[in-house]
Amino acid sequence: MKVKDYLPINLIAFIAFGFVMINSAFSQNLNSLYLETSEKIVRRALVDQIGYQMLGELCEIGPRLSGSDQSIKAIHWAKKKMEYLGFDKVWLQPAMVPKWIRGDFESARIVNSKTLNGRALEIAAFGGSVGTDRDGITAEVVSVNNFDELNSIGNSIKGKIVFFNRALDLGETNTFSGYGNAVNQRTQGAIEAAKYGAAAVLVRSVTTKHDKVPHVGVMYYVDSLPKIPSAAIGYQDADFLYEAIRKEPSLKINVRLSCKTFPDVQSYNVIGELIGTEKPNEVIVVGGHFDSWDKGCGAHDDGAGCIQSMEVLDLFNRLNIKPKRTVRCVFFINEENGVRGAIGYANYADTSKEIHYAAIESDRGAFTPRGFYVDADSAVIQKIESWLPYLQKARIEWVRKGGSGVDISFIKNIKAKIGYVPDDQRYMDVHHSANDTFDTVHPRELELGSAAMAILTFLLSEEGIE
Predict the structure, then answer these.
(1) φ, ψ for residue 225, nearest 5 deg
(2) How many CA atoms lie within 13 Å of 28's alpha carbon, on the beta-carbon side?
(3) What is the pLDDT, as a whole number, of residue 366?
(4) Fewer beta carbons below 10 Å: N end or C end of the chain?
(5) pLDDT tens figures, 14-50
(6) How far apart are CA 316 and CA 255, in angstroms?
(7) What is the distance between the alpha carbons of residues 330 and 67, in angstroms, rounded to a whole number?
(8) Where do the domains of the chain lie, and which CATH numbers do they carry?
(9) 333 and 341 in contact (C-beta within 8 Å)?
(10) Hey, which residues are catalytic here?
(11) CA 49 to CA 328: how far, in whole Å?
């Protein structure tokens, strides 16, 4: 039964009239120019799909690990593209970055088993790992789920390979939370295992996709402990290895890695801007990190974020929007294994006479828009939240307090640091792996992200957040 069946006719009319009046008052508070511009931005992004085309061009270059030849090739591509798009100013900002190369071999196979000799396991070295000699390391394997378990068995792991077996918690609805609760095995595992004399480390891939593809990323050492090889193992092979050593504890595997670290090399942030018509000294940064891991082509992480940032400026040009404040696109180099680009830009921002007004970072993949996290005081957050009627044109559902992004987090004395948040359910399927390819990007999802960032940038420029 319906509620209205029990209400007097005059009361129903009164309630309906109230809703009309509220909606009418709310609509009157909206700026028709902002609504019209927001709609134009979304339509132009979705119809033209220029950002999607540019991402395709970028992905043809291949992976963009800091210090690699492909990274430099991509940097020069980006500079030429910004110039071609007619930005008012384009330049390269130097930064020295690490150079780590995977090399020509990495493998793991079972070599001492009653039934599994020769069985290969899919692995990939973590960024920064030391390698082995050509013969590799052969040892028994010890499985642990966390550092407490590792500490409890202590010196019994000396000379063995430690297998960190904790999976991303699939019960977490936020995949970034699940990732954050498991990733310390990758970043700190070699340090913790080396304390007890381990020979090497394997880590179950931190992913939501249960295939054999290893998911890589940076790992760390400390000078006070031996540096031991560290590698990811694909999810299905992690399951296989766990069952194999449970049934046969004396089983041994051979691990071979040819990765190596070289001296730092010259690289660059890529920067382009549209100069503000009224407040050119107040800068709104939009950006992402231009480096990627050497698996896949970094389509989602973070080619998409960079292209979306560049397309913000291009959408302004296509629609003849002249921002009051300067809008600056920054492709930060070396976020994945050193944040040298972010540090360099932050130093520039700190010493420049410019006022860094706000910054938006996109580094969560090219999926459907959901919201914006804002690192600012409550009044600023409320102001941005009041723009939801415009942002909803690009399917933005919420604005709330939260972290922004690694690269822009280094910028000091700024009114708002903002992180663009698309849907996260598929991101960890591709993150840091050979799955991160252009064909996994849907053009409409990518373009809606560009549009959402462009609308927010437009409002920041025109309306301000004071």
Answers:
(1) -130, 155
(2) 6
(3) 98
(4) N
(5) 444 444 333 433 444 899 999 999 999 999 999 999 9
(6) 52
(7) 18
(8) 31-100+263-462 (3.40.630.10), 105-258 (3.50.30.30)
(9) yes
(10) 335
(11) 21
Looking up tokens 């891991």, which residue turns up? 293
DSSP 8-state class, residue 75: H
Nearby residues of 242 by Cβ (< 8 Å), 6 or more positions away: 143, 163, 165
The upper half-sphere exposure of residue 381, i.e. CA atoms within 13 Å in the direction of its Cβ, equals 16
Q: Among candidates 297, 330, 440, 319, which has minimal Cα distance to 48?
A: 319
Neighbours of 69 (CB within 10 A): 9
- What are the phi and psi torsion angles at 23 (to 5°)? -65, -40
| Residue 394 CB coordination number (10 Å) | 23
pLDDT per 10-residue tile (average), the chain, 466 residues: 40 43 50 98 98 98 98 98 98 98 97 95 98 98 98 95 97 96 98 98 97 98 98 98 97 98 98 98 98 98 98 98 98 98 98 97 98 98 98 98 98 97 98 98 98 98 94
Q: Per the structure block, which two tokens stand in for 93?
A: 């900002």
What 3-state class would DSSP assign to 409?
helix
- Token pair for residue 11? 């009361």
If we measure between CA atoms, which residue out of 141, 144, 256 comes closest to residue 192? Answer: 144
The tokens 């999976």 sit on which residue? 167
Q: What is the DSSP secondary-structure string of 4-69?
A: GGGS-HHHHHHHHHHHHHHHHHHHHTS-HHHHHHHHHHHHHHHHH-HHHHHHHHHHHH----TTSH
Helices 443-462, 32-48: axis angle to 10 degrees equals 150
Any idea how long the chain is? 466
Q: Which two tokens stand for residue 318?
A: 């296509």
Cis peptide before 314 (omega within 30 of 0): no
- In the numeric block, the tokens 């190369």 are attached to 101
A 10 A CB-CB count for 462 gives 16
3-state secondary structure of 233: strand
